[in-house]
Design a protein that fits this description.
Elements (H helix, E strand, L loop, with lengths): L2 H4 L1 H22 L9 H22 L4 H11 L3 H4 L4 H25 L1 H11 L14 H18 L3 H18 L7 H7 L6 H7 L4 H4 L9 H5 L10 H4 L15 H6 L15
Length: about 280
């Protein structure tokens, strides 16, 4: 095992805390929107979810994505290994394909009703800030991890590529969920490559056609390529409503209610809900 891989957990934790702190300070100094609820009311549940997610993953999964990549490399499994793709090129290909898989997975979680029940907890946040990036139901996290493990196995992704991908994905999610203001010209330029906060905020609109757009997490090219890109919200960034037309009660944001949310309202049929 490479020396840096032995410290994978510390590398991931250090990057996570650093980006989270930077985004929190940025939101404090240059907020894009006025929050409808105080952080003290939303953040305990949003931060609590990531603690629950990590505890469940550590308890139930004997191997995570980087560990799977190490196993794959040692056994010579996966397409990139079978084709003997040079390591630098294999890392680049793996980064692109893993990001594409996340895009496709995200679309599926919106299109398939059962998967939407898991994912809608992320969208039920009535505000949009860096803490929203952490708000995913444990069942969605576990399913996402299984998909990631399968992708790493089939691709034969190098361990370094998988670690880089996870660091980039986590940092990108916190960045593009940030309640931060970018100069308009900088935003226009950046979103040709990466997903910016203004681009992703559209995805958290209450309007169904906007919720079903801008699925990318890191790279913006997939939305443009597959026709799911929407430049701006129809109500403007200052006036748009965030969240869903249901689960708007403040009590729905409590940690216990968030964990139960996929099992609530089994016959729910709303026009604003993605199908």
């Amino acid at each position: 095992m490479s020396d840096w891989l032995q410290h994978e957990s510390m590398i991931r934790l250090g990057c996570f805390c650093s980006v989270l702190l930077v985004m929190m300070l940025w939101e404090w100094r240059q907020p894009r929107r006025v929050l409808s609820l105080p952080r003290a009311q939303r953040w305990p549940a949003n931060l609590g979810i990531i603690v629950v997610d990590n505890l469940i993953v550590r308890l139930l999964f004997p191997i995570l994505a980087v560990g799977m990549a190490e196993l794959v490399q040692a056994r010579g499994w996966g397409l990139l290994q079978l084709l003997a793709v040079p390591t630098p090129l294999a890392i680049l290909i793996a980064l692109l394909l893993l990001d594409l898989i996340v895009y496709v997975q995200h679309v599926a979680f919106h299109r398939l009703p059962l998967l939407w029940r898991l994912h809608r907890m992320h969208h039920s946040d009535t505000d949009f800030d860096v803490s929203t990036a952490l708000r995913f139901h444990p069942l969605e996290i576990m399913l996402s991890l299984l998909i990631k493990l399968a992708a790493v196995l089939l691709l034969g992704a190098p361990p370094l590529a998988v670690l880089l991908f996870e660091l980039i994905l986590n940092a990108s999610a916190m960045f593009n969920h940030g309640n931060v203001r970018l100069p308009e010209r900088l935003d226009r330029g950046l979103r040709w490559i990466v997903v910016t906060p203004d681009m992703h905020r559209v995805h958290h609109s209450v309007h169904r056609e906007e919720t079903d757009s801008n699925f990318g997490f890191s790279l913006s090219c997939w939305d443009r390529l597959f026709g799911s890109y929407r430049a701006q919200p129809r109500d403007g960034h200052e006036g748009m409503r965030i969240g869903l037309e249901y689960f708007r009660d403040a009590r729905a944001g409590r940690l216990d209610r968030l964990l139960l949310q996929p099992f609530l309202d089994p016959d729910l049929r709303r026009t604003e809900e993605p199908s």
